[in-house]
Design a protein that fits this description.
alpha+beta; Thiol Ester Dehydrase, Chain A; globular
């Protein structure tokens, strides 16, 4: 079976097709700016702008197990159901670095798609746990914008990204510079 056929059968392909269909409808209605899909240049950022990163993502047990295996995180709270039952949470937690990675990925098309480099991340916090079945949403606020001192013609943007779940509880915050 060729790679194209495997792709066509995947859930990712179905999600991608739904998103494209939605975008075509929005474009016909004049409710979407096509450039947004491909990131922003330095001059497009304005301090105070807030970008909602959609669609959200419902975290599955499979997502968590796969990420746990890929990163060699061996803490049983992330994959051993009996261990999870005996904790204060009463069930397994989603790996916090998966939550962070998901939010970073969700923010790319709005914040860093056209960035030359990610200059760093600060003050990462996880104020509430994430469990299987939670749906994660993200938004980013532009905090600062300035010309680069070392690279003529380029700029630096500082962003605060906030992740929430389906109950609108904050599950992650971090600051990023591009």
């Amino acid at each position: 079976m060729c790679i194209l056929n495997i792709y066509r059968m995947s859930k990712l392909h179905l999600l991608y097709e739904r998103i494209l269909k939605w975008l075509r409808i929005q474009k016909k209605l004049g409710q979407i700016i096509t450039e947004r899909l491909f990131g922003r240049y330095f001059e497009d950022f304005q301090v105070g702008d807030i970008y909602d990163h959609r669609p959200g993502k419902t975290v599955t047990e499979y997502d968590n197990h796969l990420f746990t295996l890929m990163t060699l995180n061996t803490h049983p709270l992330h994959f051993d159901a009996e261990y999870g039952k005996a904790t204060e949470f009463g069930k397994n937690l989603v790996v916090s670095t998966y939550t962070l990675s998901l939010l970073i990925g969700m923010s790319v098309s709005d914040c860093s798609q056209k960035a030359i480099a990610n200059l760093g991340m600060d003050d990462v916090k996880f104020p509430s746990p994430v469990f299987y079945g939670d749906t994660i949403y993200g938004s980013s606020e532009v905090l600062e914008k300035r010309e680069s001192k070392s690279r003529k013609g380029q700029g630096i943007v500082k962003i605060k990204t906030t992740g929430t779940n389906q109950k609108d509880e904050i599950i992650c915050t971090f600051y990023d510079k591009y």
